[in-house]
Design goal:
With 406 residues, the chain is an all-alpha fold. It has one domain. The protein has 20 helices and no strands. It has helices at 9-22, 30-39, 45-53, 61-74, 84-94, 102-115, 117-129, 134-143, 151-165, 177-197, 204-207, 213-221, 225-230, 240-256, 269-281, 290-298, 310-330, 333-336, 345-365, 369-391. InterPro entries: Lcp-like, MPAB/Lcp_cat_dom. GO terms for molecular function: oxidoreductase activity. Residues 111-343 form the ER-bound oxygenase mpaB/mpaB'/Rubber oxygenase catalytic domain. This is ER-bound oxygenase mpaB/mpaB'/Rubber oxygenase catalytic domain-containing protein.
Length: 406
Amino acid sequence: MTVELTVSPQHRRIRDRVKRFTRFDLLPSDAVRGAFVSGHSDGDPVAERFVAQTYHGEMGSAKARELLDEALRVGVDNVPDAPESMRELFAEFETVPDWVDPELIEQGAAVWRRWGYSLGAVGNAGTMDTYTEASLAVPLSLSGGYAGASALHRYLETSRWWLEVCRPGAVLTPGSTAREVSLKVRVMHVSVRARVAAHPEWRSDVHGLPISQSEMMLTLLGGSVAPALGLFALGFLTSPAEMRAVLHFNRYLGHLVGCRVDEMYPETVADGVRLLYYFDATRKHDSGPLGPELVEGFVPSFRPGPSVRGVGRARALAHLHLQAGYTRLFMLPWNRKDYRLPSGLPGLAFLVARAPFVAVVELLRRVVPAVDDAQQRIAVNSWRRWHAWHLGSREEAFDASKALRR
């Protein structure tokens, strides 16, 4: 199955003009474009063998989850019942690639800590902007993760992963929660991929595989190049060196969650911009009613319930307006106008008013290391408090056994 991607005439004209005046080509090389096209039909064979044999096989999801938890706790070599597919998965997962630079990994994690809550909010706005595409909207709608009342809880699961992997040294520390959650995310993606691929609503002839290599690549850009550039508008002055570090950090995160980060992964920020432009230039706008279902369900999920009163209600409304404000800034206006969303103007006004103060701190941290440390600590603690408050007594499941909702 070969996916067809066609650059729109409008995007081609923009590319030609930019190239004529700046000599910068907005489109990636033919090799990268070819890898991106073929990547729509590629999954995660190693993890897929494990899931097919265990979660979707005779063992069953409950036993498979217990087995995975045990292997994560004591090491797969100490689990006598571990099937060969699990040993192969752990061997790949636990191998640190030769290209990994631990210093760059830590610098990239520090960038995430400075961005804090804004990283998740920008990521959400950018992700909602992609729901014009059925290849992205169908799996999310079928799995129910970001649809309706479950949207906020699914976001809290994602936030937990963000918070864990950006802890100092976490992603390179064997047995860390960051690595445990990353492997569970990988297994969950594979399970959803298999279920969606077998569903009659999925068009493999048009979209290839659900949660494909190419689409996972876009999420890595959504955690690196996109926020690094976009958050300048809110006062976050990420340097070119820091952008390269966060690209390296996301490359390793991709390795952990089963994304191939070889020929397609951007080597530079410019390469990342080109790949993002290529995605936008080849949109199909074929999600139909599923796009509005997902977009219009997410931001309103922050609205306080009828029983919430007082400070809790005010706090929830503040986050509702903030999330809507981020969509004002980071969803493309011609896409956002197609959805019914809160105005976002109060949140936008707050973000714009705050930007100069953020910029001052960003400048100070470059000359006073203590300011840098404080900025990271305050941003992460604020993000964690928000996460704990919203999560309440619930737990993140990263459930690979959940059936599709229709």
